[in-house]
Model the fold of this input.
Amino acid sequence: MILVYFLASLLATIVSAGNAADLVGTWTTKSRQVITGPGFYDPVKDKLLEPKLPGISFSFTADGHFEEAFYRAISNPQNPSCPKGIMQWQHGTYTVSGDGSLHLTPIEVDGRQLLSDPCSSSKALYTRYNQTEKYTSFTVAVDPYYDSVRLDLHAFDGSPMIPMYLAYQPPEMLPTTTLNPVTSKKAKRQAKVEPDESFNLRALVSKDTLVDPNRWLWVGVIMSAMGGIAMFFS
Done:
């Protein structure tokens, strides 16, 4: 019996490694609470919709488009009673290189992130999110324990991610074109979200509350320059 299980596990690890065609579909972690598509992000109202449990979901199309949804808790080693919560969503195109690595290139203006740190602020921060990603390898195979198709991704540093399981085929996704092109009106206000101790991120955030993360970069540059001038004349 042990030998049979070992052989099945070995077969699962060698079948469909690096085969782009096998990526097609929607994948989610075991809780099955995080799924790409309109249940996670509403592009019309520009809202991230909080799932019941944390998790990760990826979707891939046969013609090279992807969508991803993350909902994670971030531990606080200095104060364990103050965890953070984060939601991230983006979509774009993907390619598989000859070495089997997977490359995700998002549509820059469409990505969204909602960060909640209830012990530091009563307001969560809603921003644009744009992160090009590389996964050194991936494997699609039948999990011998759960008897379902499993996707294993390895991050840019080779570390394995949490396994994901096939949820939908064809994939559950929003349109693959640009959903929220940038307009001349610039968002300047921070999202007013009241997170609780369980890092509840449920929020209906409008486009007017969206903060451009590039704004904080220039604020940091200006503040650093002012600090240098103050030190020079002190």
